[in-house]
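Hi,

Apologies if this is the wrong queue. I'm a grad student, and the batch job for Calcium-activated potassium channel subunit alpha from Plasmopara halstedii produced an output file that my downstream script rejects. I'm not sure whether the problem is my script or the file. Here is the sequence I used:
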Amino acid sequence: MHQNYNRNTNKTATFMDPLSFDEAVIVVLHAYDCTTMKGHMHGLHQRLLRNYDLIWNQVELRTTMAISSTFQAVFHVSLNWTGLRIGLESWMQEVDFSLNLIFTLEYLVHAYAAFDRLEYILSFFPIVEFAVVLPSWFDLISTHTPSIGYADTLPYVSRLLRPLRFIRIFRLVQFATSSLQQQAWAAMLTIVSIVFTTAGVVQATEACLEHCDDEARVCRCRDLSFPNLLYFVVVSISTLGYGDISPVSISGKFVIAFVILFTFIVVPIQVNRIQATITSHTDYSSAYSAAKLHPHVILTGFVNADSLSVFFGEFFHPSNLNWNERVVILNAAPPTPEINKVLHAYDSKAQYIVGSPMLDEDLTRAVLSDVSACYVLVNRQSSRPQYADQCCALITIALRRGNPTCPIYAQIINSRNAATLLKMGASDVVVVGMLKFSILGRSCQVNGLPTLLLNLLAQCNSDLDSHHSSPQWQRHYLHGYMHGIFLLDIPRTFSSLTFGDLIRFLYDKASIIPLAMLTDDGVRFIDMDFKLGATADPNLCCKVYVIAKGLSAVEGVVKIPPEQILSYRKGVRRKGKSSSSSNLMEMKKIKPALGDEIEQIRESIINMYSVAEDYDVEAAMGLADSEAYGYSGHSHGRLMGEMSEYERFASLGAPEDITNHIVVCGFPSDTYHFIITIREAPVPDDDNSPSPAIVFLAADCLNEREFERLRGFSDVYFVQGSPVNFADLKKTNIRSAISVLILTQASEAQYSDPNMVDADAITIVRYIVEISQRTRMPNLVVELDKSSNVKLLSSQANERRTTSAYGMPAPVNRNVSYLSTRRESVNSVLSRRDSFWTSLDEGDGNTDASFLLEEFIASGRVFMNSMLDSLMSECYRKPWITQFLHLLINGSTNDLEERRLFQIEAPNKLIARTYGECFRLFLDMASCTIIGLWRPERGVALPHPCVFTNPPTDLQIEVGDLFFVVGKPFAFTSSPNIFTS
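Support response: The file is valid. Your script probably expects a header line. Output copied below for reference.
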């Protein structure tokens, strides 16, 4: 020890005195403990702050506290009904103190979880709450510590403060269903609380604490019952008073005078608030004023009730961490009645402002300068798609000019405009046409894909698979619906593991499936042998996109003890596989991103969309050349009677012997990406099956510009006719088709009732069902604009099932005993499904919850356009999720392995094995990841096909199951021994 630092003396060293190594270690450890403790406390406050609204908004908790507040007020009236009760019996004191303890804890939690604690403590209602909880504590202090000073005054103060508990009845306002109803209840409860509180205070001030035989005016006190005091207060504040009852004490007179003046001020204010609320329902000119308390996002562009409902449902979902954020809707038109219904459901979290995003004053009212993010929605049903995209581009420019740093997420229709919009300032774009028709194109080859993506993009609120009364297939199906796509921060403790080891570890520990990594070049599939390394962040290894069952599973990764990771790293066995030299070179180029490499990632996305833009330019030049050289349908330079290539396409129709093809009822708005998704799907080695031919059936042929975009594709045919005409359907040889795609014919302002938008698609389904009665039904995919119309499709499916009209014959589960007719068994299954809808609606809170168990949804036959709005809301908290979805569907041109999502039938070797065993076999033997399966119908046990997303590990594989696989496509015909150890 140094002489100037000795623990055994009182001498203290200065901060300049040198320390020994041991002393320095002690000081460092002490500082580390303090820092760690502060970090834990800060983390606790952040978690409580984030989950505060979620916990407090639980209906059961709010109802319990409101009932407790009302009971406490009624309890006070009952005790003092005939006069002020000076002393309380023991059981009365216990009841009063128990209630007060609950409200004390509530006040402390509110104060601790407040965003600005000082502002909360000094607010009106928190001050009242604090004053209300004091009387019971004053009584406790005066009873157990009578010797302290001022102990004799505490009971008197306690009696004066107890009547303030009537103000707590304001909690009943939260049960109002609209803002107008809230203001009406607030005005009524204001008067009630003033009357009852004043009556209680006057009773306490006027009461005779000592016996007095003289008149009340001489004694300066009087004992009054509570009903008489209520009458006195009402008469006093409403008229000049009758004089039959009047206060005799100085304090009582002061209270009455104050209450009369207070009433003259407060009641008119409440009336004015009601008038302002009524006015605000027709006038949305006010500015957003809560920017300092609540961060907000701006939603603008084309806003309708359907897109708004889906967007709000996803944005305010508990898994999205937007607990403290608000949405400001900036639209040039006033809200429609349908939009008002949606706004009233999110009254405290959304504000509608009538204004244009092109005007600076309107952007100022929306507080663009402090916005967290901006969303620009496009009119998907516009008759002028290019004009709709141009409007979104102008709005993006205006938003970027007003705020150079905030993220801007925009929707557009045409892929050729995506690169331009990104260059104009958009952070990310959702290309509606490209994304939708890429998914629909892949759905023609992958059974159940629409529902798989719906499960991953839509989110639910509760454990839907916990209802034990539902059939087993429903529990497994709803188990998959609860999964979602998340961007997971992998802690640094996972460094030196391979990507394959990471998948094995997370799947075994939390049933989480990592699929891709965020790199400085964007989202990429990673080789299983890629070794995770360190990044510039001392706490982060990398960011990966995963499939997980809710946010709780994702948050559990950071809670995994480092000892388990180290133990797994030591015990893992390498398989001895060696990557090729080209793969090793590619892996060395991969650099995990931290998420702030925005410009570099945007450049990679711009390059991806530039391919579509360049192809569109080439198509336009090809059209110009054909017109110049006389090959167009309008040219006179060709020989008499000679048809142009476009005319031959429009008139020849489909070959009579065409088989194993895809029939499309209608024309996609982005035909190029629809076809290229089908044709660019990699064919496994030694698999000589050609890409399926495509037959379009529509009343009107596509224009010459669109024809130029697809003229380079072979085996593409067009049949002019109507899908609701049996003769025209037969021209497509639909009975030999492998897939049938029905596109909705939605257009702007086509129907007086917007719910009729899917009428054509539903009618076409009926005709296809009838024409396919005696044959095996092809893979049917229907596009719907309104999710509520799914029930109409299911009603046709129920009729088909009872009459055996169509459907794939499937092997019967041998464990099921059939003791009733098929019709009765099916009806019992349907009745169980119908009875389960109620629990879905109550547990989820999503308006589409009752549609989940509809046959066309569960079997993966319906693509709902609302999925695109769900994806839009995910862009904020899950950056670059659109690029991940494109990668999943189409792969990447830079990926030598051509990895993407594909489907493969379970071979005989995997039948009767568990899903968990199959997951590990695919990962170890094929370097692929399975994320779910599609199962055909199984009689009564499974009345229709069903999609299981990441099902439980103990699910047994059955004959006919189709795996959803992510990786390099292969076929068991070309690799029969792939699972042979």
